[in-house]
Amino acid sequence: MIELKNVTKAYSGKTALDNVSLTLPRGEIVGLFGENGAGKTTLMKSILGFIKYNGEITLDGQPVTTANISKISFATSEHSFFPNLNAELHRDFYRHHFPTFSDKRFYGLMEFFDLPLKKPLRSFSTGQKNQFEVIMALSQGADYILMDEPFAGNDVFNREDFYKVLLGILEPHETVLLSTHLIEEVSGFIGRAVLIHSGQIVGDVDVADLEEQGTSLIDYIKQTYNYRADRVSRALSILTDEEG
């Protein structure tokens, strides 16, 4: 289990995470939702130890250190690979550093996304680079897989098919934390939704419970964020009046 207790982070005096407490048990698929700047990426980078923070984060009851960080993998649209190396050389590098690396997943997902093994990563399109990030995160052999907007530049068919493949390959002990704006697409894929706003957790719900209540995930998110259904009509009314 990954556990955050009272985690706070500020950049130049501006709070990015505000006293966040959260638990991520093994075997869950969790969606992390929030507007741009809500704190999603900061939360993930804090878990990984990429940035300093106040509070406590533990991994299976222990602080996150070089001794156990391999239990966590990270797929980010910022990209973390070596652009001059090809995919197969990346595989060799990961196999050297992660004994639990899965060749089966690597080659299977490379074939699924139809990515070349011998071309340098710099020649990949943005969508292909993001696909490769996901492949490496899933092949590392980690127990906790963090994905931060991993599907940018991918068409809807690739995304939908990938969700089905992922559900089919995840082991019971693996946890996925997925940050995305594609709420409706992932609503049938995730089991739990965590909502963050202005650095605070404002919602945490099982998707199955919402379904039993007859509430969709998107409606729950709109309610939690006090979404104004009239914002479009009000804007058009003001703009139309000004233009007239």
Spell out the blueprint of helices and strands.
Elements: E1 2-11, E2 14-24, E3 29-33, H1 40-48, E4 54-59, E5 62-63, E6 72-76, H2 87-97, H3 103-113, H4 126-139, E7 144-148, H5 156-169, E8 175-179, H6 183-186, E9 192-197, E10 200-206, H7 207-212, H8 217-224, H9 231-243
Parallel strand pairs: 3-8, 3-9, 6-7, 7-8
Antiparallel strand pairs: 1-2, 1-4, 4-5, 9-10
Helix pairs in contact: 3-4
Number of strands: 10
Overall form: globular
Domain count:
1
**Mean model confidence by pLDDT:** 90
* Strand arrangement in the largest pleated sheet: 6-7-8-3-9-10
Q: In what range is the share of β-strand residues?
A: 25-35%
CATH class: Alpha Beta
Runs in which pLDDT lies below 50 for 5 or more consecutive residues are none
CATH topology: Rossmann fold
Oligomeric assembly: single chain
Order of secondary-structure elements: EEEHEEEHHHEHEHEEHHH
- Distance N to C terminus: 59 Å
At the fourth CATH level, what is the homologous superfamily?
P-loop containing nucleotide triphosphate hydrolases
